[in-house]
Amino acid sequence: MNDSDPAPHSLDRARAAISLGRHHEALELAGVAVAENPSNPQAHVVLVGALSGLGRLRDALAAAQAGLGHAPDSGTLHAQHSLILHDLGRFRESVAAADEAIRLSPHSALAFYARGLALAGLKAMDRARTAHEEAVRLDPGDADYRRALGNTFLASHPRTAESHFRASLELDPTNALTLNNLGVALERQKRPLEAAAAFKAAILMDPTLEVAKQNVKSTVDGLLAVSGGSLFGVYFLFRFAGLAAKGTTFAAIPLVVALVLAIVWLVRRQDGKRQVEANRAALERLDPQIFEIYRRLEAETTWRGKS
Q1: Residue 298 near residue 243, CB atoms below 8 Å
Q2: Contact criterion met (CB below 8 Å) for 182 and 212
């Protein structure tokens, strides 16, 4: 290959386009690189990445298999093959592809990450955790690897999962999936106010994330049904602490939750609809953004029920 060969330049531009989320452009450039030098495994890696980024999983699978025909010793291509098989729900094949990736590239964090996802798909959580721990050890600066490790603790050790999700957010604070999973970990520790705030943050980062919408509605439903007017206690304590509404983030909420629990028993119980309405009003004052998200989700649910 001489200096005038366009393939290296196409590859560099394709990688840059992927990093910017411009997958259509990356796909075109990667196609040029593959056509210019079909034996270059990196060209196939970038092509597969572009197709995966566009959600064209079957095309990505075909591209990965074609790439492996040209470069069967590419650990990265085997890892990508594993990830695509995982996304297609073909978990046992995904494990096999990841194992081959690890055999070829024993120090590849991506290969161990792919193995962990595949094993988690098979519900083999202990083995998945071991694989994700190795991925994090090999590349501690990758937020996705941290989140995946946290996921393996979510059902059994939500506090440990929380610590991994927070570590992931330190690396990528705007990741909506991680924010949602943090909310799930908090909810499972019976910390619904913090959970609702994490779900809210996830929705603000990605308004299309349906799982976060479902989670915030479920959590707020539970908050509105609490007895003893506890949301009133939360609201007034936030006012007292100078943390109410406008300046509050989910990270500040743990500072007051313990005090809230101590004052809830002092508040007179309300019954039925009056209690829920009072709690709605308190929630609206406490966090107008959560309340507005919840109100819209209520309206959508009502509309679907009537359609």
Answers
A1: no
A2: no
Domain positions in the chain are: 208-307
Q: Which secondary structure element, helix H or strand E, spans residue 280, and what is its range?
A: helix 272-286
| Cα-based distances in Å from 152 to 125, 127, 146, 213 | 6, 10, 10, 22
- C-alpha 267/C-alpha 129 separation (Å) is 45
Query: Is 0.85 topped by the overall pTM?
Result: no
Q: How many CA atoms lie within 13 A of 24 on its CB side?
A: 0
Q: Please write the tens of the pLDDT for every residue from 39-49.
A: 999 999 999 99
For 176-212, write each residue's pLDDT tens digit.
999 999 999 999 999 998 999 999 999 999 999 999 9
Token digits for 166? 């927070």
Task: Extract the tokens encoding 50.
Answer: 């572009």
More confident residue, 13 or 279: 13
Residue 41: C-alpha distances to residues 10, 59, 176 (Å): 14, 17, 32
Contact 235, 193 (CB under 8 A): no
pLDDT above 70 for 247: no
Helix/strand number for the chain, H first, E second: 17, 0
